[in-house]
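Suppose a colleague, Dr. K., hands you the sequence of a protein chain of 282 amino acids and asks what its three-dimensional shape might be. Before reaching for any lab equipment, you can write down a predicted structure in token form. Begin with the sequence itself:
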Amino acid sequence: MSTRRPWTLSKGAVNGVLVLATAYTLLPLGWLVTAAAKSTADLLGGRSLTAANFDLGQNLSDLASAGDGIYFRWYLNSLLYAGIGSLLCALVCVGAGYAFHVFSFPGKETLFGLVLLGVLVPTTALALPMYLLASELGIVNTFWAVFLPSLVNPFGVYLARVFCAGYIPGEVLEAARTDGAGELRTFWSIGLRMVMPGFVTVLLFQFTAIWNNFFLPLVMLSDNRLFPVSLGLFTWNAQTRAFPEYYPLVVTGALLAVVPLVLAFVLLQRHWKAGLTAGAVK
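The predicted structure, expressed as tokens, is then:
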């Protein structure tokens, strides 16, 4: 007769389910890693998961030479759009959330309600109005047509206000004002530091959204030298029926496109751990 306790069986079952879920989640990434090292014949022949004919270096070389290195131009564009855009957007969102939390002014809750209303509007529905505005400003098919809309994120403002309410106690702000610090100095030296986990959260959300953004660049841009990597890979993938040699380029490019997202989450996760008690009143 078995002497194993029921909780042991339950723990084993839960761990088994978690292992299966992890394997299911990582399977597409594993396919991408192996497929990125395959030739056109292997990909079309369904041999993308085999260990034979593993030649990632050749695919990377072909990717670098295709279109005079246009892929890495797309890659640089995406880093500029997503890197600078997410950093400035996170700063704007945290500043707005801090203002909504700390200050009292007429129409405050009404204005915040409009921010929440903006959360409900899908970004794809705003692409055409933004195109018309960009056309009026004469910035269509320029870097700014994609970059400027990325600085606005209503959900980031809402999230920043929630973080400020939980991480920034009023006593600390009053102490800073008593010591003679101005509002801008208080926000920059105290408020922003205490709400750094919220800043990093908004930054990561926006970085991911901009990096994966496809529809807005598709509407705004016609010059392929300004394409982000998502739109560039789409144009290559659309040509694979006529030019099958693009298949390895698309898969290898997709593998490289995942790297910044993984690095961003790995390198910035420490800010969440460091800021868990940042709002505590000592």
